[in-house]
Each structure stands twice: as C-alpha cells, then as structure tokens.
Amino acid sequence: MEYDVIIVGSGFAGSTLARKFAEDDKKVLIYEKRDHIAGNMYEEERENKVRVHKYGPHIFHTNNKEVFEFLNQYGQWYFYEHRVLGKIKDKLVPIPFNFKSLELLYEQKEAEEIKAKLLEKYKDKTKISILDLVNDEDTTIKEFGNFVYKNVFENYTAKQWNIPVSEIDTSVINRVPVILGYDDRYFQDEYQYMPKEGYTKLFENMLNHSNITIKLSTDVLSDISIDNNKIYYKGEEYKGKVIYTGAIDELFHYQFGALPYRSLNLIFENYDINYYQPTSVVNYPNEEDYTRITEFKYLTNQLVDNKTTILKEYPKSYDYKDEESIPYYAIINDENLQKYNQYFELAKEIPNLYLCGRLAEYKYYNMDAVIERALELYKEVRD
Ligand SMILES: Cc1cc2nc3c(=O)[nH]c(=O)nc-3n(C[C@H](O)[C@H](O)[C@H](O)COP(=O)(O)OP(=O)(O)OC[C@H]3O[C@@H](n4cnc5c(N)ncnc54)[C@H](O)[C@@H]3O)c2cc1C
Description:
This protein is an alpha+beta fold and about 375 residues long.
C-alpha cells in the first residue's frame, strides 16, 4: 500500500492532519464521502454571485495564536467582528444581552437601577452566566435574570434541542453570557477574522500538496474494514495510520445503538435587494419556528449590487438511517456519553486508529478548538 496515512474526512480535523503529515513527507490519502472538501465549512457561490456557507454560518474566532498562524499560511483574512441582534418583544436588541439591550427593553429608570446593581455586585467582571443572575439573592438582579432567561434562552434552547431548557447541559447555556457593559461583539477573542476568498479556497490551499491524494464521493467504509482489532484496506491488512473524523457509531456499525444528534433544515432564500436585515445574524428566540436568519453578504464581505441571500435555520431531529439527514449537534448527556464511551473503548483496542473531530469524539468543537486538537494529535502520533 503506497499511503502512510489514511484520513477519513476533509473538515478542519482531517485537513489539518493531512497537511501536517504531508509536510512530514508522508503520503496521505483522504477519503471524503461528500462531493466536495472542507467539511461543514464548505462555501459555494449561488447564481446571484453571493457566496453561502452550505452547512450553516461559520464565524472564525480564537485566542490561540498557533491555530491562527497555522491557518494564515493558506489564505488572506479580513478583520470581522461578529455582531448579532435578537428579536425580543418586537425589538431588535444586541445578543449576547448587554446594557444596550437592557435600555431598549426596560423603562429608563428601571434600566438605570438594574445596571447600577449589576455593576456594584459584579465589579470585577465584564460578563456573567445567566445562571448566576437567576440564582442571585438580590431580587432586582434575580428578576432581571429571569427576564433574560425567559426571553433569550428558554424558548431558543427548547427550539434548538427539543427538550426543556432545564435538561440542557449547563455548558451549552453558558456559551452565551450576559455582558456587563456595552460591548456588543458576539465574541471577545483576540483573533476575529474571516477568510478573504472563503473557506473552500482556504481548504483547497491547505490540501494542495504533492503528498496528498483526495478521493471525493467515497465512503471509507467501502474500502476499509475492521476485524479482530486489525484494519483492512481493500481486503489486505493495513499497517499505516488511520485518522478517523467521521461518526464513531457508524464506524462500528451502530452496534451499541446510534448516538443522538440534532439536525437542521436549512432554507436559503434569494432577494433582489441590497440588504435584508441590519446585521449578519438575527436570532429569533421566541415566536418563529426558525432560530436565526443569516445574511451572507455581511460574512463574505462581497459587494453584490441589489442581490442578497439569507438562510433560515429550522432545528429538527436527526435520523441516521436517512442519507439526507445531517448530524449537526451532539446531544451531550450522561446516557449518550456512556454510549460514546462503549465505542471509544472499542476504538482504543485498534492500534494505529486515531479519532479526531466533532463526529469521531462526539463533542461540540468550535473550528479553532478542532484545529488545536488536530495539531496536538499530530504531535502525539507522528513518528
Ligand atoms: C450549524 C453550525 C454552525 C457552526 N458555526 C461555527 C462557528 O461560527 N464558529 C466555529 O468556530 N465553529 C462553528 N461550528 C463548529 C464547526 O462546524 C466544527 O468545529 C467543524 O465542523 C469540525 O470539523 P470536523 O473536521 O471535526 O468535522 P466536519 O467539518 O463535519 O468534517 C467531517 C468530514 O468527514 C466526512 N466523513 C464522515 N464520515 C465519512 C466516511 N465514512 N467516509 C468519508 N468521509 C466521511 C464528512 O463528509 C465531513 O466532510 C458550527 C457547527 C454547526 C453545526
């Protein structure tokens, strides 16, 4: 077999590892079951020339210099700070909820009183978890916390996950804090940039190396099998490394049952107007069936006259038996993690099989975190 490393999947996990091994003079073969590279970051241009993120909006942000420097080699970036509004009581207010949101939704006197109390109580903080506010012993702060919880978190989370917010892992709720001030950026990270020519081009550059071969539209499971803790490639035992970034339950034929995910129905709409909404993303936590609307021109920085494309995201369940269904968000709870661990134990027994990425590790990873994990894995397993 002429390849030293087989990599399954061409998202950030697979592509980062492919590039690192290729630079180490290893011959790398990538299997990608979709007809394109770039995993869920894939961007395509529509007929109206607007570039869209086919699998939902992806905004890059990180505090990790090594990750940003790694990516910087494969394309130019432009400075982009993400700002989100949310429709609350028929007003568009900044999300994460900040002092401006408070002023827009409360009478002036009451808003001043809440701000003063928050600043006094949480002097040293610039942001705080909503869970701390709802549990605060001060009645004014607690009532404010309940208001934000009800209008920003409760319905949105129930819509997104289809379970009551009380059953959601607190790490999910804590992803969106309450800001104690007027900073209206969605992220506070040091590096906030978007790829100038888009993610697909970035991936093309990353994978453009003479040691990398890519097989598109090919499910690895048609060529690779596992038997007695050995990996077989087209019927022959394979002694090289296999980096697997696909779904772990699929690799082991769902023998302990399927790992649950939430999925999304993504509906794109074109309009012959310059802009549809005032910012790239507007969240709809309450009345509407969709959770948010993204307008891509703000993300791609394109100047396309009188044309725009938006995306509405409707959460839905995931069905692993339906080929069209896409697993987007792992549903993290004790029961599902136990099931994951059963698969993990099987994988551990197989020499030279390495799991990396959101599907293989059944984990929510931001893009920077998955690249960081891939760079670490490379350091651990390179010869
Ligand atoms: C809706 C949504 C929005 C997001 N927005 C952001 C954001 O704004 N910022 C951010 O930092 N992160 C965001 N993320 C997270 C981001 O998508 C992940 O960090 C990233 O996709 C992880 O990369 P990955 O390589 O692990 O997985 P993926 O990108 O999913 O790549 C896995 C690849 O493996 C392929 N594959 C699977 N099985 C097989 C097989 N058997 N054979 C061959 N190929 C196979 C798949 O086709 C896929 O291309 C978002 C996630 C979602 C769901």
